[in-house]
Each structure stands twice: as structure tokens, then as C-alpha cells.
Automatic annotation (TrEMBL):
Domain OmpR/PhoB-type: 142-241
Modified sites of kind 4-aspartylphosphate: 61
Protein name (Swiss-Prot/TrEMBL): Response regulator
Organism whose genome encodes this protein: Roseibium sediminicola
One Pfam assignment: Trans_reg_C
Transmembrane segments: none
Binding region for DNA: 142-241
KW Cell inner membrane (keyword) present: no
Entry superkingdom: Bacteria
Amino acid sequence: MTSPSLDLAQKQILVCDDEPHLREMVAEYLSERGYAVSEAPNADEMAKLLETLEPALIILDVNMPGTDGLTALRNLRASSTVPVIMLTAASEVVDRIVGLEMGADDYVGKPVDLRELEARIKAALRRQTFAGAEQQQKDRQTGTVPFGPCRLDLDGAKLYASTGDEIAITAMEFSLLRVFAENRGRVLNRDQLLEQAHDKGWEPFDRSIDLRISRLRRKIEMNPTKPETIRTVRGIGYVFD
């Protein structure tokens, strides 16, 4: 399998830290190296940004007033697999261990060495890129794509539960799942879904797309009221993680 390239152009990095000087220093350093950088002074502001922003990686401080970084990480991992690098005090070994156990991808001690931080960002993004490419290769080889606990058989146009039992889906539901499978990790608006699903009977701004996705969620999500597989990106559309 050909190794995927790591194109840093337009890679969005979100820096969440309550120290303005550190945020600005990291943002300036990464911007000069081709990254697009957004800043959040605390976990609440980070959560608001994530309603519309889809970063390639998050740099998250552990010790912040209000919601601390470990709590923010736990909340984040309930719905996202975005790579997270934690910033910790050099002496806080426990924070590093707990962070890694909770799903952090790496950590950097304070005071921050910017060259080390950049190297760890590249490594995390590279792992994410390779993992995605390997999963896509596996999907092509098996002809199936995982959707939460279910699997979609692309060749047979069938959806199977984790038990192996077939789940009844309509032709349009299969088309929507296929479009999501072909655009893993990409946010799609309603027009794009309508166009790529090739159902010419739909009106261009037909909101029934929301109803159809709601029905799909009842079939593929562990908890349809808190979807983790096909997520809503507020003000834009939907994304399949």
C-alpha cells in the first residue's frame, strides 16, 4: 500500500490554553509553518468553537480554571476521535498517565519547546493519516464499511448489525450511507448529500434529508439521541467519523 502523504496546508489546529502569551506564541509559530490556527482560552470556548470548527488536531492544557483539560478531554472523546496533545506541567506525571488512558494521543511538558511540539503534532497527524488509509484499504478489500456497531456491505447493498443479522434499509438509505462512506471525515451539506445520492425526485432544499438521517441513526447509533457515527455539524450539515 502506498504511504499517504502528510500535507500540512490548511491543517486546522485548535489551541486551548488559559495563558494568552502561550497561546499566541504557539499560534504564531504554527502559522508560520503552514497551519491554520484557532485559539480558545478555556474548555467552554473550545466546545463552542467545535460546534462549527473541525480541527485536524487539538492542543489542550490540563490545568485551566473552570472545566479542566482532563474533563474537557473526556467530554470530547464521547463524540470525537480528533488527535489531542495535552500540555502538562513537567512534574505532573499523573496527569500525563491519566490523559493517555482517557484518550490523549500525546503530551508536551511546560515550558513548551516549540520544536518538540511541532514534531509531536506531525507524528500525531501522520498516525491519523496512516490509520485512515489503512481502514479505507481494509474497507476496499472486504467491501464493507463500519457504521458504529453495524457494517455496510457495499457490494450487496445491505446493512448488518453486530450480531450478523441484516437490518432492513431502503435504497435511499443505502445511497446515503454509501455517500458518507466515500466521504469519511468530510462535512457534507444537504445539497451535496442530495446531489451525490442521485435521487432526482428530491427538491434542492428538501429538509427531508434530516428525517432520513434521523431514521438511519435509529438503525446504526448506539444512542440515536447522541449520535457519534453520523454527527450534525451545526449550521453546515453532517459528517461521518
